[in-house]
Amino acid sequence: MLQVSDYRAHPEYGPQIADRVWNAWWKGAGLHLADVVHHLTEMADANALPVAFVAHDGESYAGSAFLIHSDLEERPTLCPWVAAVWVEETRRSEGVGTALIEAAAAAAAQIGYPVVYTCCDRSLERFYLASDWTLVEREVGPHGLSVLSLDTGAIART
């Protein structure tokens, strides 16, 4: 049965999370795997942000997501952000991504944020819109990303 847990309760998934995040987003930006590992260390402390969530089924890693202060330097006033949402290819279309973003949004609501943000390629907008996110704007920054928002109160009430 799929569970979404705070990464601090399951640090054994750290190597898999770091590998997926680095290969998906950081490797092409010239950053090192050690940079992601360091970022995960920051998510293992007692601070409310940043924090990571891991989806797992028994001992099997299914995906992960972060809740961070900022994910898009072009929009520094927006906070917090659901970022680095990753679902293993074999687990896609099973609700893993939705469970991860709901866990991150619920955590944001619990610490007092009424809205969370995310950015994605336009090809992924449909996924977020199907999960009650609202499109804020498109074509932001050098990668032409879409920015979306989610009312955390709606997640907290479900």
Explained architecture:
- The chain has 5 helices and 7 strands, in the order βααβββαβαββα.
- It is an alpha+beta fold.
- The chain has one domain (2-156): Gcn5-related N-acetyltransferase (GNAT) (Aminopeptidase, 3-Layer(aba) Sandwich), CATH 3.40.630.30.
- The protein has a 4-stranded antiparallel β-sheet with strand order 1-2-3-4, with helices on both faces.
- α1 crosses α2 (33-42).
- The radius of gyration is 15 Å and the shape is globular.
- The mean pLDDT is 93.
CATH superfamily: Gcn5-related N-acetyltransferase (GNAT)
CATH class: Alpha Beta
Rg calculated over all Cα atoms: 15 Å
Proportion of strand residues = 25-35%
- What do the pLDDT scores average to? 93
Oligomeric category: single chain
What general form does the structure show? globular
Given as residue ranges, the uncertain stretches (5+ residues, pLDDT < 50) are none
Total strands: 7
Offer a quick outline of the entry:
By secondary structure, this protein is of the alpha+beta class. It has helices at 14-26, 33-42, 96-110, 125-130, 152-156, and strands at residues 2-6, 51-57, 60-68, 81-87, 115-120, 134-140, 145-151.
Task: List the SSEs and their pairings.
Elements: E1 2-6, H1 14-26, H2 33-42, E2 51-57, E3 60-68, E4 81-87, H3 96-110, E5 115-120, H4 125-130, E6 134-140, E7 145-151, H5 152-156
Antiparallel strand pairs: 1-2, 2-3, 3-4, 5-7, 6-7
Helix pairs in contact: 1-2
Question: What keyword list fits this structure?
Answer:
3-stranded antiparallel β-sheet; 31% helix; 30% strand; 5 helices; Aminopeptidase; globular; 4-stranded antiparallel β-sheet; 158 residues; 7 strands; alpha+beta
